[in-house]
Amino acid sequence: MDRKKLYIILFVLFILLPLGLMTEYSAWGEWEPETYQKLLGYIPEGIKNAKSFSLIPDYGEGSVVMYYISAIVGAIVIYGVLFGIVKMKKNETD
After folding, report:
1. pTM higher than 0.70, yes or no?
2. Got the DSSP string for 23-35?
3. 18 SS3 class
4. Contacts of 56 (CB under 8 A, 6+ apart)
């Protein structure tokens, strides 16, 4: 797949991002402890003892702009990590 097609696919996915905000259900893994209680019948110890933090302020406040920024930052981080791994592997073979 060439880069142009990849960029088009990524752009379409970014455009479709707000569709997940229209559902009545929360995103996978972004649950409050009460949700674990409801789904599992108990709250796992790791969840009880977890401290909440956010790299992006107001992320969970429902702002569509913050969801877009979060998606872009996440994509850049994943791309950077994968780029670094590929570069390290390429250096090992040289």
Report:
1. no
2. SSSPPTT---HHH
3. helix
4. 66, 69, 70, 73
